[in-house]
Amino acid sequence: EASAAVIAPRVQLSPDSAAAAGLILEHMARTGERASELAARLPRLSMLKHNLAVEPGRIYSVLQRMYDELEREGREYDQTDGIKVNWPDGWVHVRVSNTESLVRLIAEADTPARARALLDWARDRLGR
Fold first, then answer.
1. Contact present, 125 and 84 (Cβ < 8 Å)
2. Nearest partner of 96 among 124, 63, 61, judged by Cα
3. Which one, out of 23, 52, 113, 127, has a CA that is 20 to 30 A from the CA of 13?
4. Which of 95, 97, 117, 96 is nearest to 107 (CA)?
C-alpha cells in the first residue's frame, strides 16, 4: 500500500498494523529468522508521488487523454484502480483522487532516476 499501511487479506481487507505485526512475528517464530534478516531481503526501490490539480469539470477528460495515448502506443495497462502501467524495472499508477480535484501519480522503480522518468512519462501522457 502506497500510504505505508499494511493490508493482510488473510485477516481483513483494510489496513491493520496489529495483524501485520502478528504475521511477521508468526513467520519469525516458524523460521527462526531475525527481523534484520527479513529486512535485508527486501528490495531497495524508489517511489515518487505527484499530484496534478485539475479543474473538476476537466478531470475525466485529462484521464481520457492518458487512455488515448496508451491505446495509440499499444501499451498494456491495468484498470483495477485507475491506470497502472508496468515495466520490468518499475511501474506508474495514475488515478483520480476520491476526495480532491486531483490526479494522483505514483511511480516506483529500481532507482530514483528511473522513478522520475516514469513519473515524467505519465505527466507527458496526461498533457502536463
1. no
2. 63
3. 52
4. 117
**What local confidence, expressed as pLDDT, does residue 115 receive?**
98
Q: Can you state the percent helix, strand and coil of the chain, rounding each to 5?
A: 45, 25, 35
Taking every pair of Cα atoms in the chain, the longest distance, rounded to a whole number of angstroms, is 56
* SS3 category, 40: helix
Give the three cell numbers for residue 53. Answer: 490539480
Give the HSE-up count for residue 13: Cα atoms under 13 Å, Cβ half-sphere: 0
8 A C-beta contact, residue 114 and residue 89: yes
User: Per the structure block, which three cell numbers stand in for 61?
Assistant: 477528460
pLDDT (tens, 9 = 90+) of the chain, 128 residues, equals 456 677 888 888 888 888 888 999 999 999 999 999 999 998 889 999 999 999 988 888 988 999 999 999 999 999 998 999 999 999 999 999 989 999 999 999 999 999 999 999 999 999 85
**How close are the terminal C-alpha atoms of the chain, in Å?**
26
